[in-house]
Design a protein that fits this description.
By secondary structure, this protein is mostly beta strands. The protein contains three helices and 20 strands. Strands 1, 2, 3, 4, 5, 6, 7, 8 and 9 form a nine-stranded antiparallel β-sheet that branches. Strands 10, 12, 14, 17, 18 and 20 form a six-stranded antiparallel β-sheet that branches.
């Protein structure tokens, strides 16, 4: 045991991460605390279950921007760490991302190659004197501060133990820029890339255009200050898409798919293919009541306030043989 000023050669010197810094390995000295996170060499680590990573960061009394890269792969299943991997349920994962004890954003991930980005700012007063910045991933069913109404609404629709096997690929700490670029409109794919929405994750981070909502729901996140969707109201333009029959083997399933495609095409010709929105939940406050939406031909416009303090979960209604899509979002 040593007292202040009496350090010896045996004391380990812990070098903090000095922003701007990109951490893409779990072997760095700045990673001081892990809870159910298995350290990696080419990634920061892989979560066994809901857990935490704590980094020592030299913020020097300034605000801090935190950027995370998360993904799934073939090993992202419960039990992977013991060699007794259990098959995944095939359902999407709804995961909370917390830092310094507060919910920051949520990600909805589905598939074996899904990637997601997370971005949030920490105020100077949120960073303790020792510089420990904690990043926590929790399954939607765990922790406090999440509405029981929402948990009941997603029960059976999302995978239990959603954090199991999830990869934390990279963590970036940097000082927030003075001004952020703020467009007026983003297409569906760029909405997800900017972290405004999370709809299953992106296999191709360079993709642009319409975002297919195969899970029948999507998250609307609080975003960085002065960026798209951070203030005012956001209008989401939602459409539908019929699955092409050619991707299904030539069996009765393909015939059934062709019939669904024809019905959907007929509805589009008649201007009746706009998808309905059933419910919108605040993760913190629960059901927000009847969502404000209007139909214009084959498009539904969903109007939501900016998610400043809590993510929203949008649950789509049945689309009669088609899948809903997010075409674009406009911010006012």
């Amino acid at each position: 045991m040593t007292s202040p000023g009496s350090a010896t050669e045996l004391d380990q010197l812990i070098l903090p991460a000095i922003p701007p810094v990109h951490l893409n390995s779990g072997q760095v000295a700045a990673l001081q605390v892990t809870d159910r996170l298995h350290r990696g060499t080419e990634i920061v680590g892989r979560f066994e279950a809901s857990g935490l990573a704590g980094f020592k960061v030299s913020s020097q009394g300034r605000a801090l921007r935190v950027l995370l890269s998360l993904s799934l792969d073939d090993r992202s299943v419960p039990g992977w760490q013991s060699g007794r991997a259990e098959p995944g349920a095939g359902l999407p994962r709804l995961v909370q991302v917390r830092s310094q004890g507060r919910l920051r954003q949520c990600v909805l991930l589905k598939g074996k190659r899904a990637h997601a980005r997370v971005a949030f700012d920490l105020a100077p007063e949120e960073i303790p004197d020792d510089g420990l910045v904690c990043v926590e991933l929790l399954d939607i069913a765990e922790g406090d501060g999440v509405s029981e109404e929402l948990r009941q609404a997603v029960s059976g629709r999302v995978m239990p133990e959603g954090v199991a096997g999830m990869r934390l690929n990279k963590v970036v700490f940097e000082e927030p820029p003075a001004v952020d670029f703020d467009p007026d409109t983003l297409d569906g794919a760029r909405c997800e890339l900017s972290t405004l929405i999370s709809a299953g994750g992106m296999a191709n981070l360079n993709r642009q255009g319409v975002r297919v909502l195969r899970s029948g729901m999507f998250v609307v996140n609080p975003v960085l200050k002065d960026t798209f969707g951070s203030s005012g109201r956001v209008t989401f333009r939602l459409g539908t898409k019929a699955e092409p029959a050619s991707v299904i083997p030539a069996t009765w399933r393909r015939v059934n798919s062709e019939l669904r495609w024809m019905r959907h095409a007929a509805r589009k010709v008649l201007g009746m293919a706009a998808p309905p929105v059933d419910q919108v939940f605040s993760l913190r406050d629960g059901d927000l009541g009847v969502p404000e939406q209007r139909t214009d031909g084959n498009v539904t416009e969903l109007l939501l306030p900016s998610a400043k303090t809590s993510p929203f979960l949008v649950i789509m209604g049945p689309c009669l043989g088609a899948v809903p899509t997010l075409e674009s979002a406009s911010s006012y």
